[in-house]
Amino acid sequence: MVRTEPADWTDPTGRRSGPAARLADLSVRLQALRDLEEIESQHRSFTRAVADRRFGELAGYFTDDAVADMRSHRPVKGRAAIERHFEGMAAAPVAGAGYILSSPAIEVDGDRASGEWSWLRLYSDVQQGPGTVRLWGRWEEGRYHCEYRRTAAGWRFASMHFRVVLPDRDPEFQDDNTTVEGAEQ
Questions:
Q1: What string of DSSP letters covers 99-146?
Q2: Distance between terminal CA atoms of the chain?
Q3: What is the mean pLDDT of the chain?
Q4: How far apart are CA 104 and CA 106, in angstroms?
Q5: Secondary structure class of 78 (helix, strand, coil)
Q6: 132, 126 contact by CB (below 8 A)
Q7: pLDDT value at position 18?
Q8: pTM value?
Q9: Which of 135, 120, 127 is closest to 165 using CA atoms?
Q10: How far apart are CA 110 and CA 32, in angstroms?
């Protein structure tokens, strides 16, 4: 038995349309799914590079005019400033930590997208005065709020706002240009 598509099809809004309109609709939906997967893959790769301490690669995940606002560091704008930011992180890396990135909520709108992620860092080594102490079970949960932009090289961060929210919330900056003392990266 040969199955054929009906001449008319009802789309999710209840409009009837023919096979060409259905194909166009499916093409748009497929592209949205591809975009979503590429954004998620890009963000996971960024987090893996952070976990592996490959700080020299991180600026490449951002657009040339991106803004990164991460924890106790001042917001920085532009890929060169973001690269310097990550070089500073390499100078004082957190040892004995693992990362879990989860719960992406991403909305794609053409060549732009926005997203929120949960981040979990599990530690074993904690800086105590001049030395390091091994403490099992230490953890932090953070939130990424990101804007993404499609570029010729693929999806990149156009902005990244990151704060730790649990068990202790990162303090927000004050207008006096001071930074938080003792803040970990």
A1: EEEEEEEEEEETTEEEEEEEEEEEEEEEEETTEEEEEEEEEEEEEEEE
A2: 64
A3: 82
A4: 6
A5: coil
A6: yes
A7: 79
A8: 0.76
A9: 120
A10: 8
